[in-house]
Amino acid sequence: MKKITVSILLFFLSQFGGIALSVLLFILIAFPQELSVGTIKQLYVEKQSIINITGMFIGQVLLFFSLYGLHYFEKQDFRKKITPKTCILTALLTITALAFTGGLTAMFGVKDLNHQFFLDIATFPISPISIIIGAPITEELLFRRAMLGSMIEKGLNPWVAIVTSALLFAVLHLNPAQSIGAMGAGLLFGWLYIRTGSIMPGLIGHFINNLIGYIHILLESKGVIETSQPQIPIAALAILAAATIVLIKLQSDSCSGKGIKI
């Protein structure tokens, strides 16, 4: 579909554009007068992590305004009301999914290619803004509102659409350890989007997921804990997840009145 293809292109262009603008910004700060290829290379090597997280944030800003400019979402998407019950169930499901996928990642020893990067930028001021706020907003708008929404509008089977958008969400993280969690989160947030007709539950869940992840990595960077991947009793979490799904099936409210029953 055209909207999905454009969305993927925007995702990569915003990321590369953000990094390029970040490099330019640091060059202007570090070398306002003298500049050479050698000094640029040295700057990037020394400040690579900081440049990348700054670029990530700039990329998120670019992506947000690109999606808005193309009318891939409207302001009203952020104004839809959701009930306290929906918020509580979203939080419970998100924490369950986070712990479950974290336990799977640790159990099978899946390598986290970005682990050291996150440790390096944990205390940088822009990191929590980008990780906890920027990423949830732009990724929910991109993967749930634009991609999943467009598939539903085209009449695709809801579960096919959810799985497809979740796979794209996982693959585009380009990191095995993150992809496992992203796949689980993509299925959950996609299901919530279909059930409620709103991106707000996904935003809440994504915020909680990234907040917990950031706190873990921050504590690890300060030596408070040894690893950001907790060992989790998978069976217990599976039971909790099943009980939560039954609960939301029985009691969930549609925050917009236009959710699709699946």
Describe how the helices and strands are arranged:
Blueprint: H1 2-30, H2 37-69, H3 84-107, H4 115-121, H5 126-153, H6 158-171, H7 176-196, H8 200-221, H9 234-251
Give Rg in angstroms. Answer: 19 Å
Unreliably modeled segments: 228-232, 253-257
Q: Tell the overall outline.
A: globular
Fraction of helical residues: over 70%
Sketch the major β-sheet: none
Distance between the termini: 23 Å
Mean pLDDT: 84
Order of helices and strands: HHHHHHHHH
Q: How many discrete domains?
A: 2
Give the beta-strand count. 0
The helix count comes to 9
Structural class: mainly alpha
Percent strand equals under 5%
What does this structure look like?
The chain is mostly helical. The chain folds into two domains: 1-72, no CATH class; 81-262, no CATH class. It is 75% helix and 0% strand. It has nine helices and no strands. The chain has helices at residues 2-30, 37-69, 84-107, 115-121, 126-153, 158-171, 176-196, 200-221, 234-251. The radius of gyration is 19 Å and the shape is globular. The two termini are 23 Å apart. Residues 228-232 and 253-257 have low confidence and may be disordered.
Briefly, what is this?
With 262 residues, the protein is mainly alpha-helical. It has nine helices and no strands.
